[in-house]
């Protein structure tokens, strides 16, 4: 009962704490704050009008400015007086384009018209060229073009144009030059009205934009030809005002209004923006909110007292579920759950820290094992990018780096002055690795050491790619000399260091290291310290070799992977290159026999017995009887490649099926948890690309599709067989409720609730 008392008490305190302050604040606002809010509302209204005045002034200034700029940009190569609109097609087209650009340059522009004085025509982008027929219109447009100002506003065209109260006129050219044309810009009444109407978003007051002499430019949402009584009152109130900004309280029809206005200077005139808003509209929301807060607070307190006994159980359901997850199978606690959750969280945090420390402890071993496999060529199935990704995961910086290898071998353990004895090979190698690591670390080199447990160790050095070959070789030889001297001094053994070449490709490291280890065979007996250069000890011969080595390397790689299609292509290409390099039949046959021998060697290294694959067939005896190169190739395909690939695929398929079975078991057991392709790959000792392809091959579905379908099937069972809430079911199958609902609708075509109702009706 202690736990229930704690939960009930906490719930009551939360309800009272939430509702009682709201009720008190509502009473204070209702009784004390109304007048203050009216004053603040009036101030806000004045600031709002001032801001709107500034914003509209900026829009009109922008319009005037860009029109003045366009008046200079519209000058043609010849004057408008000499322009023939029907013959000078290029000039006419440029005028149309310019009018279109002008119209789109400002949202306040409704229409742009170019008036040509001599031609007595109007040019519009929308309607084209229109002649001026009546004498009255000719006089009107000529008067507009000969006005004393270059840019000015006028309403003289308003009677002729619907919904265009004012027009901006720009003379071309301006100044003292005789005017040949004029730009007539019709301001969009809709856009201007929308800007003014924003001051009265509720539609309960009035807004206007007028000239100082009383000319109406806009009444916001009201037609300027049909002003309301409130509009007329607002006009009288602000007409003739001299101050830039002001506000006052006016009465109309028994109601008080807050009236605010602002002025903005236009060409030759002063325009006024004004707005009238009912004071009751400003204070009504506050009064309503205050009353609602009082009623809500009081009602919430009463309702909380009656419902607390029932509601606390539902409030604590998430806590109880969390407790069940944290303490599965344990007895219910007698203290409050939050203290228990905190203790359990600390416990899980400690376990997580311990696991992280274990991972950190194992990381050096994992890195060394990876490097050992890489240098020994066991990772040849990985591409260059995959190798780079693996190395980046282990914390190696490999971008803009080249790689060099050193091989170190120690001898004379039987003559080590009693310091080491037979059987201490692993101990000697371990000591040499530690000494090497300390030496390279002290020099700040990016180096990693591999222990081969046989008095031999390898060193992989990463160096900047922008270093010259001479600098790299020099640094490698300095390191080799210091390493040989240090190991010889400390271990009292003969030390030989083989310096290999450099490469920027990770896939070539096994070849480089094999060369470095092979060079150790050229050491001189009895010398305590030796430095060997691979480039000098294993030089290239001068005889022409008629053999496609590179193609053989690619062919053997395809053989190891079991890619039969690529093998066939590589064999044909190998024979073609061999024929091109050696036109003599004997040379071609010897090349094919050499390839056959290397293929058998590769098969044996892979762990397969060629005799078992061919049931004891004497391959060399049969092969000696085949004369034609194409026949030799066909024989190799039949008796070597096909049996090996078949056995390899059989083994790989069985391993792949076992892997996928284990992954499926993981999904079926842990589908409610956070499962990913990468996590399953790490769990089962493989990599994500292989698992993805294998999963699709075995199940016919992608990993994510299978996981999603399995989870939805489990959810459908719970929807039909239980009465649990849909949100709880979503959590049980590993989804958040909103995402679960969308996913269920996508796959099933109906929502989870509709699925349950449909199942209940069956």
TrEMBL record:
Keyword Aminoacyl-tRNA synthetase: no
Gene3D superfamilies xrefs: Homeodomain-like, PAS domain
Spans traversing the lipid bilayer: 12-33, 292-312
Keywords: DNA-binding, Membrane, Transcription, Transcription regulation, Transmembrane, Transmembrane helix
Cross-referenced InterPro entries: Homeodomain-like_sf, HTH_AraC, HTH_AraC-typ_CS
SUPFAM superfamilies in the cross-refs: Homeodomain-like
Protein origin, superkingdom: Bacteria
Domain HTH araC/xylS-type per the UniProt entry, residue ranges: 661-758
UniProt cross-references to Pfam families, sorted A to Z: HTH_18
Name of the protein in its database record: HTH-type transcriptional regulator YesS
Organism: Paenibacillus allorhizoplanae
